[in-house]
């Protein structure tokens, strides 16, 4: 099946169910399950009041907005969705066109598409912590050099105090949320993992495919905790993850970028699977570590990531950056 055929398959089979992104803010609902009888189109953002635009990009057609829903801080991410090849016929047939300019062989129009072809992927974080607000705020970044010793004396104490909640991860592993989205589920406690679409992917086209594999072992925070004893786990995620993506999306391993982030935002080991050619946020060399390299490094040196100096970017107001400065490491 071609990529185009795969696009069609996603859009026809899963479209309706998958288009619903904005979810009810769950101030006191820890398990993340959606209420059974909520109307599909309930607007949880109708009372949203904007405090500030944290960042935006006209080119990427995305905006990160900070505000409040009732008394809760919230971050809303608005992103115009890509135009899908399989919707072109309907787009051309069913839209209104208003002429803006005509000159010789050139003309420019404003096209008003049918509403269902003109959606905005909307992600809501509510209640949002200060860390969430900082995560989405445009800021200058600085490259930090972290030795194994820096990790133990600066980074580890910081992440033990300050990390974002992992409740959403446990909800996925325990099938309390997103259970219907799971692409592959390996229940083995040692080498098992859950593979599912990343929050950032609207799943309407494989061009920007983005899945994450969340490992079942709960005590691996990041790359730094990995040693050769984790090789069977990493190899299982790599192999089975690629097979599951080939089967579901018809995308071969040669079209995938499979990597870990260091530093991650969430300190429970997970692996990113994105389509090669899609410029996914955080896939640059300063943050992404190819899983194939990680496996080889651990095969060569079982303690590679315990001793190795690692580089990563930190934003200007990141508390970890302050700790590196205070320790005279920046
Ligand atoms: P990361 O490397 O810890 O941090 O990756 P990053 O967000 O800075 O990249 C965590 C990944 O999990 C990201 O790609 C998120 O988009 C994704 N993610 C975060 N949350 C809260 C969810 C969620 O609730 N569901 C799913 N499916 N993915 C999520």
TrEMBL record:
Enzyme class: hydrolase
Keywords tagged on the record: Hydrolase, mRNA processing, Nucleus
Record EC number: 3.6.1.59
Record field: compositional bias (Basic and acidic residues): 1-33
Subcellular location: Nucleus
Region (Disordered): 1-41
InterPro entries listed in its UniProt record: DcpS/DCS2 (IPR008594), HIT-like_sf (IPR036265), Scavenger_mRNA_decap_enz_N (IPR011145)
Keyword Membrane belongs to the record: no
Coiled-coil residues: none
Chief subcellular location: nucleus
Catalytic activity: a 5'-end (N(7)-methyl 5'-triphosphoguanosine)-ribonucleoside in mRNA + H2O = N(7)-methyl-GMP + a 5'-end diphospho-ribonucleoside in mRNA + 2 H(+)
Signal peptide region: none
Entry function: Decapping scavenger enzyme that catalyzes the cleavage of a residual cap structure following the degradation of mRNAs by the 3'->5' exosome-mediated mRNA decay pathway.
Similarity comment text for this entry: Belongs to the HIT family.
Assembly behavior: Homodimer. Associates with components of the exosome multienzyme ribonuclease complex, such as EXOSC3 and EXOSC4. Interacts with NDOR1.
Protein name: m7GpppX diphosphatase
The organism of origin for this protein: Ataeniobius toweri
